[in-house]
Specification:
Length: 116
């Protein structure tokens, strides 16, 4: 049985390895089905809907804390009622398992925020 992505930790990526193939990325994406595979499978992205600006800001701050603890930093755009998160591993110019680990953990943050 495959270990849940949210239970894993990001590992340092120093480059020098190939990014995931489209097929490999698609296999990981099955665990984070709300994320879109973009740019010929070199990036994943999801837009989250929130109730207002304050919730979007809190959500983005929570993602920032996660990014610092994992050492893996997404690109984030946000405004009133939304946050769009984009992930790719810049050192390999494509996707790595770390991107999907972060996506899964961000989904969990969003699920907790939606419950409150």
């Amino acid at each position: 049985m495959m270990e849940a992505l949210a239970d894993k930790a990001c590992t340092p990526c120093r480059g020098g390895i190939p990014p995931l193939t489209h097929e490999e990325a698609e296999r990981f994406r099955t665990q984070v089905p709300d994320w879109q595979l973009l740019d010929d499978a070199h990036r994943i992205e999801r837009t989250f809907r929130l109730r207002n600006f304050r919730e979007a800001l809190t959500f983005v701050r929570d993602i920032g804390e996660l990014a610092e603890s994992e050492g893996h930093h997404p690109d984030i755009r946000f405004g009133w009622g939304y946050a769009t998160v984009s992930l790719r591993t810049k050192k390999i110019k494509g996707l790595h398992e770390n991107d999907f680990i972060m996506a899964s953990k961000i989904d969990h943050i969003f699920a907790r925020a939606a419950e409150s």
